[in-house]
Amino acid sequence: MQFQKKRCVAMLLAGGQGSRLMVLTENTAKPAVPFGGKYRIIDFPLSNCVNSKIDTVGILTQYQPLELNEYIGNGQPWGLNSSHGGVQILPPYARSKRSEWYKGTANAIYQNIGFIERYSPDNVLILSGDHIYKMDYAAMLRFHEQNESDCTIAVREVPLEEASRFGIMNTREDGSIYEFEEKPKKPKSTNASMGIYVFKWSVLKKFLEEDEADPSSENDFGKNIIPAILNAGHRLFAYRFKGYWKDVGTINSLWEANMELLGDEPAFDLHGSKGHKIYARNTAVPSSFIAASAEIHDSLVAEGCNVEGTITHSVVSTGCTVGRGAEITDSVIMPDVVIENGAIVRSAIIAEGCHIKAGARVGDYDPEQERRITVVGKDKLIAEGSVIAAGAIV
Amino acid sequence: MEAMGIIFSNIYDSNMGELTKERTSGSIPFGSRYRQIDFALSNMANSGIRNIGIITKYNYSSLMDHLGSCEEWDLKLGDDVRFMPPYATGHNGSYRGKLEALQSAMSVLHHSDAEYVVLSDTTVLCAINYRLVLEEHIASGCDVTVVAKRGQTNGVRKCPLAVKLNDDGTIADMAVDYCAPEDYLIGMSMFVMKREQLIHIVQEMVPHGRYHYERDFLLPEYMAGRIRVNVYPFHNVALFNNSVETYFDNSMALLQEDVRRSLFRSEVPIYTKVRDAVPTVYGPNGRTANCLISDGCHISGSAEDCVIFREVDIDEGADVRDSILMQGSHIGAGARVRYCILDKNVTIRPGVRLLGSREHPLVVDKGDTV
Fold first, then answer.
1. CA-to-CA separations, A320 to A258, B16, B155, B292, B319, in angstroms, rounded
2. Is B353 a member of any domain?
3. I need a labelling partner for B55 at 20 to 30 A (CA). Which of A294, B99, B102, B152 fits?
């Protein structure tokens, strides 16, 4: 089937295993991990697409796709349920002779050349499903087109001492890239790649095909495709992004990103007017009931909760119960968690559907020592009165 | 056992004062995140009724805006749900009762192939399974089933429909606009009957000046022995919002756990328009006690015994008690508000004191600044 030509099609890489998130991604693809009380990580790139007027998004899934597929559904919550484009889940599929897993990020796109070709787009936007940020991709696309760029890479400034942990783009004065260094020991600049690329589709397609034909390639954008395009003398540009951006690929960064939603002037503000909102699949739950015994300070609490206890500097998601005398401090409580009377949760991430029984103590924080985040995986039961030590992963 | 549904979106509008100035009773906000019609529509959707006509009179643009394409109810506007604006009868697009109102629904009634029709208005709020009502209606062999609630009559309040039951559940007495004593059940404005029969009575009665379903059809036909009526006593919580005072009391009743448990059950969810509001932000010095509170609020001041809708801001030092704050209200720093109903987008300036009473809550009109 052939559709009307699109200026840009977005491809969202949502297949990562997210093994550094440990128990949180045991049965959940990383992009489906809950964030910020009522969102999931994938809501951020998806909402950015919609807010940037990109109406065709392919989501490449591979690992534990069930929950993610169900969550995305027909794309209606993001307004991506159009019959002409919209959102499409693209799992690795069985071809006539061989069924292949996605070997790498580039291979995932290669296997879906057919999907992209249906829209014969001028450009393809490559996104990853594990970053929290708000970005106007339309502005990046304009930059890309104005510079007649073949490949534009979004970059952000990182402190020099941290630059060796990232893919660094060395640029000329006009923003064009002359060199790409993956995790350089002696970084020459501080422009770190954000894993967001706009390619001219005709160029990307050619390099994907060449990359696929090379058996020694790891089929990875950062390791193979970008260096190949650069070496072939194409025009590559770095697009500077100044806003908040966070890779939430580790327990600590996921916890931090949630904490950065709090405070009078949060580092990352979820609020936005129409056209700048973050959209999510909403559940039909009533409003939250905050009892007379409740104390809530410096926190986010979503709908569908029943709060009788104390919540301090925490994010409490949709459908949670916080019993009388329970204390939640510096923690992230994911959806549908029950925390019974008198239970104490400190510096912890409690995954969806957990049940913390009365009087249990989960996590701790001693200001004299480095904070160690405690994690309780999905649907776990923490027995009455039990103690889960700081930094434990259950 | 197919049934279609008819929802009267604006019966009793005139009793609701300022709250229906610019909207139908169906679009009155209720329960911190809903509109009254959400209950009627969700009940039908949850009962598997997929052919629903919504009868409107005037002021229905807010209702259409709220329901959108009905996707939150997993229904499709145009296919499953149809709006029926006033039937042009030459009297200003208004109607004098449900039978007359049903004239605008005749094409929908004719085109349906459902055997039964469920009628509901939007002022009685509950979570009801119409499948059970329908099953009982069919088993009873009666012409009409009336859904009714015990314990709501007090000999003072006038009931549009009241029934007294014998021990075997049959009707001992039926009355309309009656200050019924305590042993009566009050009608919940929900009826089940055969679709063909409803078409027939609308066609026969309206031209003879009989416009009211209860007064001109149900009661006289029952008294004359021409129809048999079954009563379905409803045992869960039902809230009757038929005046500003009952609206206020019923809103406050939501602060009781048993009321919420009966009204909001996960197996029969009440759906509403999604607004994509951020979770509510609780400031460092705010205080929230005994409140029902939606997404998108900023609570920096104090709220006690309140029903708070989406995107309400309560600034530092403000003190709000025993009040209903609709979407987009803003309470300025140090303001004091008690026994008030703030309609949508009301601004209370810093330091202002606004005091109603339990019996007569003060209503501030939509968009006003005080």
1. 17, 35, 43, 14, 27
2. yes
3. B152
Residues B80/B46, Cβ–Cβ less than 8 Å: no
Chain Cα centroid distance, residue A99:
28
User: What DSSP designation does A186 have?
Assistant: S
Alpha-carbon distance values, A19 to A22, A25, A165, B35, B210 (Å): 5, 7, 18, 44, 72
Same domain, yes or no: B233 and B325: no
Shortest distance, CA A295 to any CA of chain B (angstroms): 7
SS3 content of chain A, % helix, strand, coil (to 5): 25, 30, 50
Does one domain contain both B208 and B288?
no
Q: Tell whether B213 and B315 lie within a shared domain.
A: no
Rounded-to-integer distance, Cα B87 and Cα B98, Å: 12
Instruction: Report CB contact under 8 Å: A297, B271.
Output: no
> Could you tell me the residue range of the domain that residue B326 belongs to?
281-364
B228 within domain boundaries: yes
Nearest-by-CA chain B residue for A262: B281
pTM of the entire predicted model: 0.93
What confidence tens digit (pLDDT) does each residue in B276-293 have? 899 999 999 999 999 999
Residues B133 and B220 occupy one common structural domain: yes
**From the CA of A203, how many Å to the nearest CA of chain B?**
38
* pLDDT tens per residue, range A72-131: 988 988 988 877 788 988 887 655 455 567 788 899 899 999 999 999 999 999 999 889
Half-sphere exposure of A311 (CA within 13 A, CB side): 33
Whether B69 and B138 share a structural domain: yes
Using an 8 Å Cβ cutoff, are A112 and A88 in contact? no
CATH code for the domain in which residue B299 is found: 2.160.10.10
Is B286 in Cβ contact with A303 (below 8 Å)?
no
* Closest CA relative to residue A51, chosen from A225, A219, A278, A247: A278
Partner residues linked to A345 by β-bridges: A328, A362
